[in-house]
Amino acid sequence: MKAAVIDMQDIKSYRGQKLVLDIPALQFTAGELISVIGPNGAGKSTLLQVVNLLLPYKTGRLQLFGEEAGADPLSLRRRCAMVFQDSLFVKGTVFANVALPLQMRNMPASMVTERVMAVLEMFHCTHLANRQALRLSGGEAKRVCLARALACEPELLLLDEPFAALDPATRKNLLIELRQVAETKKMTVVFVSHNLNDVLQFTERVIVMENGAVVQAGHPGDVIRRPSSRAIAELAGMDNILPCQLEQTSSGTQILLHGGVAVPYPAKAPLQAKYCCLPGDVFQLEEPNQPEQPDQIHWVGTVRQIIPGIGVYQVVVEMDGLALNLRLAREQATDLNIAQEILFSFATEEIHLI
Amino acid sequence: MDSIWQGFCEAVRLLAAGDPEVYEVVLLSLKVSGLATAISVILGIPFGLWLALNEFRGKQLILSFVNFGMGLPPVVVGLFVSLLLWRYGPLGMLGLMYTPTAIVIAQAVIASPIIAGLSFAAIGSLEPKLRLQFLSLGATGLQTNWLLIKEARLGLMAAVMAGFGGVVSEVGASMMVGGNIRGETRVLTTATVMEVGKGNYEMALALSFVLLIVAYGVVAILTYSQNGRRQDAG
């Protein structure tokens, strides 16, 4: 088993009187790429700041690289680096900014130059070395930020929504490059984001936080299809989050949606559930007069909007006052017309209640 | 209007002629106010930095006192310092009353809150996460503070200028604790007041112009160094 780079036990951190982080147990192993997602105020940044020993925690135990965090915070902090959402440069050239962490460690000037140029090269920004850091464009600034963070070859890289202000194409490129660098250097990376696309691009393990606590952990695919709360469902871009009530009947549980639509629910249901989640890709178009399959729900609705996309089209269908988002293959969607009545079905096992 | 012009001409003549008494007064003014400003920088900038970087109960109260201190009337400061240094006062045994040191003490009391308050504002206007970023890049506490001071240097320079300007131009405290003794504690402001008292308006005007020229000279040097650095930094 790989050694734990971060090991948190019963960590509680407060801001004033308010509990902002409550982690009973959390481990990250060496070389792992982990994403942390959650709505604003979920405690993601707090988690990173506690790990980077920038924010004190009141109770619990934190070990970094197998050492107690309290023993020598400076030397532990120097094995990590954090990139914030803002670039946070000092006045001066790109070179001076990237050299900063090396100078903090009293590295000889000749080595500083060598190391700065190497790390700028790694992020394709050698040509920026003599530019004023505060005048870089958003994408350039982020490359330089990453170069600055990696100048000291940290074992643990903490990213606090660093690409939030960038356009999708630049983000994607940077994430791909960063992933390659992290894999080559066998670095552990904790990546905080509220963009699930970035997370899917970057990691295979995701941790979901809400109100200072970890509420879900696992593969990003599970989080997308089985989110733990409405906030996470929205964050994950769940196509249909339908308010519902649950009712016990003689034959089992029944989900009552708005507009009087009732859906039998085969599994054991959490009775306090308030929302019924249905990913848009669970729906299938059906031909009329086809025999109904058991455990399949058949609905009839009217097409209201067809939104083109690459791979899948999004089709908005109205049914008894409910607006449903269906994701259909292009060849199916282009055959449809606005105001057309369609028959569609889904398997009840795809229902996720929250 | 004529007398103002005459005063200005007299000021230029006094400076150009190298009048030893005027030069002595100018030099003492610069020495005393410069030293008082230096002491205030040593006290005020770290205090402003500490106040800007720490959150604690009672911070607002301390800040309100600092802001209040920025407007302390020099006469009141002079009175309190006199009472402390007076022969029978608590610090009377030091024998500092009516010495340049007494003026330095009084002026440092006036300038310290000005420099502390403006330093607080300069450091406080930096991006709050900058400190965390420095620490996260591996800076020690001292390195972090030094980098923050460097980033806020324009604002801090303004604080130093305001502090120096405040003390080089005050008269109440210098008069009270210095006594305007010729050749010992006479500074430009006290000399000006004395000349007005004697009815020597031309001389008083000349001295005030010398004061303005000296004060402008110092501030100009600081401003140019500030701008020079800003251009360096781009």
* Overall pLDDT confidence of chain B: 89
How many strand units of chain A?
20
Distance between the termini of chain B: 45 Å
Mean pLDDT of chain A: 89
CATH topology of chain B: MetI-like fold
- CATH domain fold name of the largest domain in chain A: Rossmann fold
CATH architecture classification of chain B = Orthogonal Bundle
Radius of gyration of chain A: 25 Å
**Secondary-structure class of chain B:** mainly alpha
Write down the secondary-structure element order of chain B. Answer: HHHHHHHHHHH
N-to-C span of chain A: 35 Å
Count all strands of chain B and give the number: 0
Shape of chain B: globular
What is the tally of helical segments of chain B?
A: 11
Q: Which regions of chain A are unreliable across 5 or more consecutive residues at pLDDT < 50?
A: none
Description:
The complex is a heterodimer of chains A (354) and B (234). Chain A is of the alpha+beta class and 354 residues long. Chain A has 2 domains: 223 residues, P-loop containing nucleotide triphosphate hydrolases (Rossmann fold, 3-Layer(aba) Sandwich); 114 residues, OB fold (Dihydrolipoamide Acetyltransferase, E2P) (Beta Barrel). Chain A has 10 helices and 20 strands. Chain A has a 6-stranded mixed beta sheet with strand order 6-7-8-3-9-10, with helices on both faces. Chain A has a 5-stranded antiparallel beta sheet with strand order 13-12-11-14-20. The two termini of chain A are 35 Å apart. By secondary structure, chain B is an all-alpha fold. Chain B has a single domain, classed as MetI-like fold. In chain B, 79% of the residues lie in helices and 0% in strands. Chain B contains 11 helices and no strands. In chain B, helix 2 crosses helix 8, helix 4 packs parallel to helix 9 and helix 5 packs antiparallel against helix 9. Chain B is globular and about 65 Å long. Classes of the chains: A alpha+beta (354), B mainly alpha (234).
